[in-house]
Specification:
Number of helices: 13
Structural class: alpha/beta
Largest sheet: 8 strands, mixed
Number of strands: 27
Oligomer: single chain
Length: about 575
Amino acid sequence: MSDPWGGGGAVDDRWDGESGRAPRDPGADTPAHGAPDEDDTPRPPGGRAAARAAQRSRGSRRAGSRRARSRSRGKRLLRTAGLCLALLVLGTAGVGWWFYDHLNGNIHSVALDGKGGTEKADAFGRTPINLLVMGSDGRTSQADCKLGGGCSQTGVQTGSNADVEMVVHISADRSNATVMSIPRDTMTQIPACRDTATGKSTPGYYGQINSALQYGPACQVAAVHDLTGIPIDHFVKLDFSGVVKMSDAVGGVPVCVSADVYDTYSHLKLSKGTHTLKGVAALEFVRSRHGFGDGSDLGRTVSQHIFLGAMIRKFKSAGTLTDPTAVYHLADAATKALTVDDGLNSVSKLVSLAADVNKVPTKRMTFTTMQTGADPNNSNRVVVGPGAKTLFATIAHDQSLTTGSGGKSSAASATAKAATKTVPPAEVSVTVENGTTVTGRASDVATSLADQGFGSATTGNAPSPASSTTLTYGSGLKSKAQTVAKALGLPSSHLKQGTGTGVTLVIGTDWPSGDTYPSSGGSASASDTEEAVSNAHASTADQAKECAKVSPYKTVALNGVPMTPSQAYAAASAKPDSDK
């Protein structure tokens, strides 16, 4: 047998005695058998005492030899063990480097080129993060054609629309976050853009906001920035197969539906209650627009918030981020599934972003949908509605939509309250007075109001310098003042009733430049928060028991017959559920 420590020779008996000595016969040379109890080596001259001394000397030399050999053997073992440990460390480091390099190689990034504006740091030098999450409807691969359908005649396509658009805001102090969905059917002005990857360009046009992605991710970011005024630092783009990969990597996402549902368009079919969705079933859920709410894209944004909240809770749950295998599959899936901007083009940057998100408690993550109104020119399209500009301003000014303790009074309960009454801007005339030392401030703000459709404005200097901006209104004119405040992003705390007969805006030194009132950050006042989330379908990420509301309308069709999603579920009993 070979020496397991690499000696190469026969196994010796070093730990039991000297090498080469025969094993002792337990039945021989013992006092019980009459053998002498002293060594029978010939005695040296000098008698019995000398013999004993010689024997002690020989024993001492033999013992010393055994100790020396033991020490030598121990040193060799320590050297061998050290070598093995070094090889193990190097091997582990090699695997770690391969893993890191492999994940970096998965990432596809695109430059933003300043299209989204720049965030400003707060008084402590901390900067908020604003990230645009895009879900592409592109059938740009065979996998996406199979998942999304629609390629039977066109084949693999080259362009795509951003059917999912969420502005994810993480506060400068990382204490709160807001996720605002922008419905894909929103009509807006698309800016002039050129996609550096394809060379496709546009001089700009009026159209659906999701179409900007046809000119590259940077164009989609620019369109959202122009619409909302929110600086967008980063973007993440996910396609159909990416949703499948991510949901599989986390082991499925638990969601609840309020009733039986069968969306014959997205193919989502689930019984009433809670289900854990993976793969294609997860994609069917987030794509379903006919199964929930009123059957439009507005209902879909709410169910997507439920899905995203559940996924965030899964990320934060014990076991997901502490299991090395789960972390590897998650990281591998994420880096393969995402297209990001150059500011997120490495594993370390993505890990840093994930760490920032992880700092925010789920009870202080607010999901909202941009308020909309009907497009007067197309019943199938929407435009920015009342309250949206206040919501944009709270995000742009780094204001939280939850209380410091994470209470729902601001986000969840406020949705049940009536929206603040406003009137058409054309019916509002404003007197704008400059209370600062900056020349032309009143004229600048009056021009901004005129551009937004307000009636005639009178400008001039305030009677005295003003440290704080105020909007004063006469009796019965509160709704007109609120309309002005909403257009300028002015918090309701700056409004007050006076004795005059009109609406007067006095610009203070707290507003030295720009046409939107600058917030100092932190939490918005209760009235501002309520307006920001009114009709915005607000919820928080810790609402684990919330169910997606199945549409009660006949939004789907089976064999050409219009039905509600629940009726379709009952009629298609032979079709298996999506999670089966």
